[in-house]
């Protein structure tokens, strides 16, 4: 046991020397994680769209329409741009000066006061999903509120007291309470997963590059010899450096980045620490195995960078896992990101526990064993091949 530990430490120290002497590894492992976390995080710091420009053409010019436009302009999501006509409002949207337009036709107030249905037109530029959906939701809420106020006033004029008039106006009251993401913001949803993805991809890029570099230089037999001929010591000696480094990054992200970006943390520290530890134990053999099958360091970096967005898309985070085609679900199940994100988001955002996500934890454990076997096989295969080439 003591000799195995010494072998692991020797490979670990060699990995430190390798990283410090290679500019690509230094950039990937020591600069990219922090830089990307703050750069991408700052994009979503405010988390919600604010003051989206909306052109308004008011042909009614009534007290009701003016009140409607004033209340719309007071909302966080919208900033009203007055347009003289419907055509002008359309042109403002078509030329990109506004994200949409609102048209209030003549006779709206008269119809509403006579309890007829009054129509207003909202056109939004759906090429940008977030502004269009936020504007549509905000305007729907405002229309219901203003319409309800008018009907309440009408019922009071018919002799009903305030309580009865309210019941007649709104017989069913929807008590809408979004939990865990109270502002229903895209940034609050995206940031926790984005930070975890940055850790994953930079670790895989760096480790795959390191193994591919040893492969390119034909140093795998010497690496295994340094580990006393043990493939396990070779794997975990090389991986120990990444485990410790990314453990420190995790601690930094969960304290500094979460605080600066105002991301709520609702879970227990031991639970999130364990799932990150298991996640890294799965990623390390995955990165080593990928490095053994990629021809050189440059291609390792290119392939790993290229895989970032596809991995994010099929991991069940940006798009529900159940909505993926069946063959994509099978592929997604082979990626450690899928079970990890399920457990991690449950703990961080909803206050879940490891026990609540036991199946995903087992899934991640099985992937850890699978990739450990593949990594050991890859190291052994490379050692045998390079030994035969040197003879």
TrEMBL record:
Its main location: membrane. GO terms for molecular function: ABC-type transporter activity. The keyword Transcription regulation does not apply. Keywords: Cell membrane, Membrane, Transmembrane, Transmembrane helix. It comes from the Bacteria. The chain crosses the membrane at residues 24-43, 135-154, 186-208, 240-260, 272-294, 300-319, 326-347, 359-379. GO terms for cellular component: plasma membrane. It is a multi-pass membrane protein. It is found in: Cell membrane. Residues 24-377 form the ABC-2 type transporter transmembrane domain. This is ABC-2 type transport system permease protein. It comes from Chitinophaga terrae.
């Amino acid at each position: 046991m003591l000799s195995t530990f010494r072998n692991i430490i020797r490979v670990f120290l060699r990995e430190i020397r390798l990283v410090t002497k290679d500019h690509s590894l230094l950039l990937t492992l020591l600069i990219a994680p922090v830089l990307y976390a703050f750069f991408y995080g700052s994009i979503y710091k405010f988390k919600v769209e604010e003051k989206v420009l909306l052109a308004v053409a008011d042909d009614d010019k009534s007290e009701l329409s003016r009140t409607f436009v004033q209340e719309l302009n007071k909302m966080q999501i919208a900033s009203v741009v007055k347009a003289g006509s419907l055509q002008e409002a359309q042109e403002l949207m078509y030329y990109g000066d506004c994200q949409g337009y609102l048209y209030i036709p003549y006779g709206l107030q008269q119809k509403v006061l006579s309890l007829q249905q009054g129509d207003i037109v909202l056109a939004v530029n759906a090429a940008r999903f977030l502004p269009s959906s936020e504007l549509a939701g905000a305007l729907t809420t405002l229309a219901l509120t203003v319409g309800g106020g008018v009907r309440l006033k009408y019922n009071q004029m018919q002799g009903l007291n305030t309580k009865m008039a309210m019941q007649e106006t709104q017989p069913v009251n929807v008590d809408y309470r979004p939990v865990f993401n109270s502002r229903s913001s895209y940034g609050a949803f995206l940031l926790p997963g984005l930070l975890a993805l940055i850790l994953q991809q930079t670790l895989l890029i760096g480790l795959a590059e390191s193994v591919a570099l040893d492969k390119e230089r034909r140093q795998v037999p010497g690496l295994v010899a340094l580990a006393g001929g043990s493939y396990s010591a070779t794997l975990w000696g090389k991986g120990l450096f990444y485990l410790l480094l990314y453990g420190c990054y995790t601690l930094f992200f969960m304290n500094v980045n979460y605080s600066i970006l105002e991301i709520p943390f609702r879970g227990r520290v031991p639970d999130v620490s364990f799932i990150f530890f298991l996640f890294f134990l799965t990623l390390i053999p995955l990165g080593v195995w990928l490095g053994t099958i990629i021809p050189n360091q440059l291609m390792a970096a290119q392939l790993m960078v290229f895989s970032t967005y596809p991995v994010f898309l099929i991991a069940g985070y940006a798009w529900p896992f159940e909505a993926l085609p069946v063959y994509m679900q099978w592929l997604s199940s082979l990626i450690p990101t899928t079970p990890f994100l399920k457990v991690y988001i449950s703990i961080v955002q909803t206050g879940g526990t490891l026990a609540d996500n036991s199946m995903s934890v087992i899934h991640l454990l099985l992937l850890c064993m699978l990739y450990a076997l593949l990594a050991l096989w890859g190291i052994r295969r490379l050692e045998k091949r390079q030994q035969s080439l040197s003879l």
